[in-house]
Amino acid sequence: MSTSSSTAQTHYQCYIDGNWVDSAQKLSVENPATGEVFSSVPDCTLEQADAALASSQAALQSWKMLPAIERGRHLFRLIEALQPKRDLFARLLVLEQGKTLNEAYGEFDDTLNYLTYSAEAARRIEGNIFPSDNASEQLWIQKVPYGVTVGLCAFNYPLALIGRKVGPALVTGNTMIVKPHEATPITAMEFAKVVEEAGIPKGVINIISGSGIAVGEHLVKSPITQLVTLTGSIRAGQAICRAVAENVTAVSLELGGKASFIVLDDADIDKAVDAVVISRYANCGQVCICAELVLVHEKVADEFTRKVLEKVKALTVGNPMDNPSMGPSVTAQGLDRVESIVQETINAGATVACGGGRPQGSEFENGNWYQPTVLTEVTADMAAAREEIFGPVLPIVKISSFDEAVAITNRRNDGLSCYLWSNDYRIIMDGIARLEVGTVFVNKQIVGYIQGYHSGHKRSGIGGEDGIYGIEGYLQKRAVYLNCN
Fold first, then answer.
1. Keywords for this entry (predicted)?
2. DSSP code per residue over 381-400
3. Whether 446 contacts 319, CB under 8 Å
């Protein structure tokens, strides 16, 4: 399988204080479609992490004192520098992350949208004025930046998550240190070139690579860091909370979940089938809000399952540069987890209705490949119904009532999202009120609008991203009691 690495450099450097910085130790970057190492980045030292922190701190005062509209103009220059590089970034995303080329183009476009929304928000940062209890006084609530922020990005959207974090952080007056995931650091380093080209003042954005356990923890524990924003697993979020405890550093955590896809007996079955296939197998199932578990009413379960199988069996897997339906998983460790969950579920009595293993053919002998898979005869206590799979596996559980679906969804200790398919407005309103998740998709496939809000309930996170509330997540409040006498 040829997924040419000619687009990428064989080695990248980090971007600290406006300079390109290397280290003696390297992190290898693999192509998930072939397993081949095609590039490397520095495994930065703790001293280099300290340099990034000092740089961000030194840049903070002058950056936050700029009028918000000037910070927005800097973001627009960044967008202008990024726009011509659509082909480059799309191909880099395919190389290091494994998503299809079309999906990679979509991620690039999403990145521009995130940055543009933030730049346009410069004139919309609002505070409040409340009546005072005394004459000749005013009570103001100002919204001010945290200061030095650390953005920790997951491997499923290496570029879009940078735009999602950098945009709101900068427009609100913060500086940011970006640390990409070790498996997917290349697009971040290429993004740093755009930062330099756009003339963003040094120290406002630093981009540093290294292990999460060493470099990431050091950045998070530093007393310089005032806000940590993480997109990652629940386990990573728990580690962040422990790490920030001593300094009581603010956090914004967008973590994992296991979205139920509830299909009731009055649903439009054909539309629900189309939606679940898109919502499960997008990005090889590696989206935190993917449909992870079907809960389908027993009256329509057979029809629904038959139609799902027809769609899933028609999905293609192959070289992501050629735009099949699905590419590989990002990491070998992630694929091992998928295989383990599937096997445990089969051992408990489930049936593999399609897929269930590595695709056949010489082109799939290396790399992190798995077939689009559907599991039937699944019960709610089996592994595939309990664990977040984060891969191309769809377990189907039959239910007898909407109350049963709500109970299965709500008994979890996470609550990121769920899908509800029904044409009964009473059930829809009841579901919106009762389902304990951050996002409910009603008769809708997976989507995320930049003006919305992406957040989790329970262990799925603290705070959130996108829209006006995402912007506010990078601001803290300051009360001002102003005596005018």
1. Oxidoreductase
2. TSHHHHS---SSEEEEEEES
3. no
The catalytic residue among 153, 284, 288, 290 is 288
Average pLDDT over residues 87-96: 98
Model confidence over 136-175: pLDDT tens digits?
Answer: 999 999 999 999 999 999 999 999 999 999 999 999 999 9
What is the per-residue pLDDT across 182-191, written as a single tens digit (0 to 9) for each? 999 999 999 9
Q: Is position 288 annotated as part of the catalytic site?
A: yes
Would you mind telling me the total number of residues written for the chain in this entry? 485
Which domain, by its residues, includes 274?
259-449
Shared-domain flag, residues 39 and 187: yes
Look up residue 303 and give its amino acid: E
Same domain, 174 and 225: yes
The CATH code of the domain that includes 384 is 3.40.309.10
Q: How far is CA 104 from the centre of its chain?
A: 14
Structure tokens of 224?
């310089």
Check residue 212 and give its pLDDT.
Answer: 78
Residue type, 20: W
Is there a single domain that holds both residue 211 and residue 336? no
Domain match, 135 and 265 both: no
Helix (H) or strand (E) holding 281: helix 269-281
Q: What is the CATH number of the domain that holds 103?
A: 3.40.605.10
Q: Taking residues 290-312, what's their average pLDDT?
A: 98
CB 159 within 8 A of CB 151: no
Pair 263, 294: CB distance under 8 Å: yes
pTM strictly above 0.85: yes
Check whether residue 74 and residue 191 sit in a common domain: yes
Instruction: Tell me how far apart the alpha carbons of residues 179 and 162 are, in angstroms, rounded to a whole number.
Output: 9
Residues 6+ apart with CB under 8 A from 39: 5, 8, 9, 10, 11, 12, 28, 29, 96, 186
Report if residue 454 sits inside a domain: no
Domain membership of residue 345 (yes or no) is yes
Same domain, 117 and 230: yes
Query: Same structural domain for residues 272 and 169?
Result: no
pLDDT in tens, 43-73: 999 999 999 999 999 999 999 999 999 999 9
Catalytic residue among 103, 182, 254, 292: 254
Instruction: Work out the burial of residue 248: count CB atoms within 10 Å of its CB; fewer than 13 is exposed, 13-18 middle, 19 or more buried.
Output: exposed
- Regarding whether 218 and 331 lie in a shared domain, the answer is no
pLDDT of 313-346, one tens digit each?
999 999 999 999 999 999 999 999 999 999 999 9
Q: What is the pLDDT of residue 5?
A: 60
Nearest Cα residue to 370 out of 315, 310, 299: 315
